[in-house]
Amino acid sequence: xxxxxxxxxxxxxxxxxxxxxxxxxxDGRIAAAGPSSSVQIPPTASVFDASGMTLVPGFIDCHVHIxxxxxxxxxxxxxxxxxxxxWPPHLIWPxxxxxxxxxxxxxxxxxxxxxxxxxxxxMRAAWAPRATGRVVASPGDAKQAVAEQADRGxxxxxxxxxxxxxxxxxxxxxEAIVAAARERGLGVTGHVAGIDELVKALDxxxxxxxxxxxxxxxxxxxxxxxxxxxxxxxxxxxxxxxxAGLRKAVAxxxxxxxxxxxxxxxTDLGNSGPRPGIDRREVTEMExxxxxxxxxVAAATRDAARHxxxxxxxxxxxxxxxxxxxxxxxxxxxxxxxxxxxxxxRQGISARGGPGRN
Length: 358
Ligand SMILES: [Zn+2]
Hints:
Blueprint: E1 2-5, E2 8-11, E3 16-18, E4 21-26, E5 29-35, E6 46-49, E7 54-57, E8 59-64, H1 71-75, E9 79-84, H2 89-98, E10 107-110, E11 114-116, E12 133-135, H3 142-152, E13 157-161, H4 171-183, E14 188-192, H5 195-204, E15 208-209, H6 221-229, E16 233-234, H7 243-258, H8 280-288, H9 293-300, H10 302-307, E17 324-327, E18 341-346, E19 349-352
Helix pairs in contact: 3-4, 4-5
The structure holds zinc ion (ZN).
């Protein structure tokens, strides 16, 4: 048994700040969490004094390309779960398998390959190794293409709708992909650029944007409302954008949030820009779109876990997996406070700071 004491902890489904909290860990799970007046610390527990710190659930990055980094570099910097959104099968599935060991890095989920039109993105993208993409030439090929990912353990199906660099999936092929994904119990996320492709994505019933809409378009109000009513989630990945594209994405995110849209944290780590861990640019740009530090924590923990179907992660409460981050700040006043990672635990095992069999 280990115990974390003294921190202000964001506890439970409502991320309620509880000063001088005690969180006890046992067998990789949270045994108890509450104010120090209500949680007993067993005399044999090894105690980590987190006074002056804020304890939050481990961050979940919903858009990475893990193959560019040592997975441990994400974990020591506060990311305890990550979802890879396109990498060659012979490289990604062994990483997913080995990620079950809590010392290896974050728990990994993956899409497998990105499904795309012949000649479409990312078949010639400089960042993407061969077989990162998988061409789907016709509606008849959709079921097989989805099965290839699902049979290996895909947690989502990723598609490309990026007309800036090549052809995109036609409507009937995209619809066939979404239908095949549904049959396998999977959602569909996409790299989507421009209003026409966004409309196509909505018409096909896609579940998620893997980036806020790419390109330089302001999303019209009626489309924002459609995204919200169809429960399309957005993974902003603002940290890979610059200049006018970034400003437009922040404005689109602000409008989407204002309409009640579901946002989950993700950086597109590996492509360009973000550093492994809780990314300073990502969180400060989310703040610019109107999110408070606590909103950002919610998007990166509770909401991301729900979105990914990880029902025993993302919240600090009894019985949940002990994925935790202690931030070296007594209060979270600004988004940049979220990158002050002082200690990290995955499944109760210390990856940074200690204690916990490390
Ligand atoms: Zn990406």
